[in-house]
Amino acid sequence: MRYLIKRPAPIFLLLLLCTCNKQKPSEHVNEKESIPYLNISYIDEYPHDTDAFTEGLLFHKGKLFESTGATSLPQTRSLFGEVNLETGKIEVKVELDREKYFGEGITFLNGRVFQLTYKSRTGFVYDEQTYQKIREFTIPSKEGWGLTTNGSILIMSDGTDKLTFLDPISLSVSKEIYVKENDYAVHNLNELEYVDGYIYANVWMTNEIIKIDSKDGKVVGRIDLTSYVKDAKNSFHDSLEMNGIAYNPERESFFITGKLWPKIYEIKTEM
């Protein structure tokens, strides 16, 4: 995939990141928890469409894809497509009727694209090559939020502390796990990304991504992205919450963004 030439980090962002990286681990841990905060480093940044109300972000075959939802803001749309990293614009592959559906997370598996919607309890399956709809299915939760895959099964979030594993053929529930940090439930799980046995999840309305053991739901790490949220909002006042995690295996880096953000940030973190 073609990437932009690496640019120097903005001075403002560099100062924030340097301050963050110099913090001692103990400064990240309160009295009740001992979950480590993972060190992160800035790699690069790319433009992002400020009309895109981000619900999903992922790499597939070297290309970055994004899914978005249509809110009461007239410029927002429920769609997914390939992101042009030079312009931030999305080359639309599928768009839903905004009067019927609010688009949520997507993932690719076995030549298919799977898409969730918010409250309609309707999911869609498309052909990966033509993007023609193959079927619809009933989402097994009141709401659909994030979606990812471990390469053999689908994993979805619904805004609670639950992660639901779906068979990609029958689209029935194969198992459920509940995410806990030191035996306390972690709610508001949103956009998901699966990497090497772990599920990375945005926690809605926070500046954090949590790292979850996919076997038992235990939180094993946290990523604090407050400095990136501040930079996005300083660059574009209407930027909303962080939402969007895409792991690029070729570069071993994460691409992160948020709803209506002006930028996509590329970072590396200890795994």
Structural description of this entry:
The protein has two helices and 22 strands. It is mainly β. The protein has a domain of 184 residues: YVTN repeat-like/Quinoprotein amine dehydrogenase (Methylamine Dehydrogenase, Chain H), CATH 2.130.10.10. The strands form six sheets. Strands 1-22-21-20 form a four-stranded antiparallel sheet. The protein is globular and about 40 Å long. It starts with 10 loop residues before the first helix and ends with a strand. The N terminus is likely disordered.
Key attributes of the depicted protein:
2 helices; globular; 271 residues; four-stranded antiparallel sheet; 8% helix; Methylamine Dehydrogenase, Chain H; disordered N terminus; mainly beta
CATH class of the domain at 51-227 and 243-249: Mainly Beta
| Main structural class | mainly beta
String of helices and strands: HEEEEEEEEEEEEEEEEEEEHEEE
Helix tally equals 2
Which radius of gyration do the C-alpha atoms yield?
18 Å
State the low-pLDDT regions, or none. 1-8, 11-32
Mean pLDDT: 91
CATH architecture of the domain at 51-227 and 243-249: 7 Propeller
Describe the main β-sheet briefly.
Answer: 4 strands, antiparallel
The dominant shape is globular
Helicity level: under 10%
Q: Give the CATH topology of the domain at 51-227 and 243-249.
A: Methylamine Dehydrogenase, Chain H
* Beta strand count: 22
Question: What is the CATH superfamily of the domain at 51-227 and 243-249?
Answer: YVTN repeat-like/Quinoprotein amine dehydrogenase
Q: Which strand order does the major sheet show?
A: 1-22-21-20
Question: Terminal Cα separation, in Å?
Answer: 23 Å
Strand portion: over 45%
